[in-house]
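Notes for week 9. Today we move from apo structures to complexes. The key idea is that a small molecule is not decoration. When we ask for a structure prediction with magnesium ion present, the ligand SMILES becomes part of the input, just like the chain. The input block below holds both the sequence and the ligand string. Read it once before you look at the output, and try to guess where the molecule might sit.
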Amino acid sequence: MKIVTVETVLSANYPNCVWLRLETDEGLVGLGETFRNPQATVSYIHETVAPYLLGQDPRAPERHRNALMRSVGNRFNGFPTRSIEIRGNSAADIALWDISAKAMDAPLYRLLGGPAHDTLPVYNTCASDGYNFQANVSGDSRAAGEGEDDLARQVSDPGGLARSLLADGITGMKIWPFDRFAARHDGWQIDRADLEEATAIVAAIRDAVGNDIEIMLEYHGLWRLSAALDIAKSLEPYRVFWHEDPIGLDHITDLVRYRQETGGRVAASENLGTTRWLRDALTAGAVDVVQFDMGWVGGLSEGRRIAAMAEAFDRPIAPHDCVGPILFATDCHLAFASPNTLTQEIVRAYLSGWYADIADGLPTVSNGRLGLPGGPGHGAELRPDFLDGDGITRQASRL
Ligand SMILES: [Mg+2]
C-alpha cells in the first residue's frame, strides 16, 4: 500500500480549519485536521509533507512522525511549540493513524489498546456555533457568535445557561468571564469593578443551581501572576473545579506558586501541551489536569505519549475540543483508550451546529455521557455535499 495523493481542503465558511486527505493506491483514504493559520499550513504540507509521504506505506505513523519531525530541523525532536510545521505534521499523523486502523477494519481505539471505558463524562465549553472562526490576534478570545447562545449566555444569563446544561445531563461547564477585562492593564492587574462583575457571573451560577454543576474557569493565559491570584481569591467561595491557563504556560514556576497559593486545580493546556513542556511542568508540580490538542502538538502519536506520561505522574487527561470535528473524533478514541481520562471537552453548540453540518460519523453524547466512537479509523468523514460545496478550495499533490 502506498500514498498516491496528499490533498488539502480549505473552506471559506470555516476559515481557520485545514483538512488533510491522504489517498492510497488501494482506495483507502485517511483524514486529518488542524486549525489556525491555514494558508501557511497548506504551503508547508505541499512543500514538505507531501514530497516525503507520497509513495510511502501509510501504515507506520510512528516512522513517519519521526521523519517529519526531523524536517523541522535535524536536531528537532518534539520542541514545545505549536508551530506551522507541527500543525501540518499533526494533520498528517492523524490521517496516517486513520488509514492504519481502516486497513485493519478496526476503530482507532482498538489500535490504542482500548476501550478502557464504556462511556465517558463530558463538560461543555460555553461557546457559540460561530465562535473561533476568525483570526485571533487581539488576545480577546471572543469571536463572532450568532443570536442568543451559550457564549452570550455566559454574560446575559449564566444561571439559565447552567440550568439548560443540567437539563441536557451535562454537569460541567467552562466559561471565561474575566477575559474581556484582561487587555485593560495587559493582564498586570484587574480593576475592582471588573473583578466584581466577572465574579458575579460565577456567583449567579451557584445561586441558580447550587453545587449541581462543576464550573471550569478558562483564562486563556491572559493574566500575570499577581492579577491571577487576585482573581482566584475572589472566586474562593464558589467552588471552581479547575483554573485553566490562569497565567502564561511558559512561566512554570509561577504556575507552581499559583497552585500552592490558591489550593485550586490547574488545567493546562492546548496552549503549550507538548510532551516536552508537560515533562517539565509535571516534574515541577505545576499541572493537575493535562490538556492538549492533537491538531497542535503532533497528532495522535504525540497525544498518546502525553496521555501515558500524565498517567505516570498520576494525573488525568481532558483532551481539548474547540477546533474541528475530525480532531474531536480523534480525541474521543484516545480518551476511550486511556485509563486516566477525567472528562472529554465538548462544545454542544458545535455538535448540534457546524460539526453536524459538515461531518458524518461523529461520536455522540447522550445525557452528559460520551458513547464509544465508531470506526473504522476515527470514524469521521467530511460530508460529500460539503466537500463539493461552495467556498471549498482543494489542492492536491500527486505521486
Ligand atoms: Mg483552553
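Residues 218, 244-245, 269-270 surround magnesium ion (CB under 6 Å).
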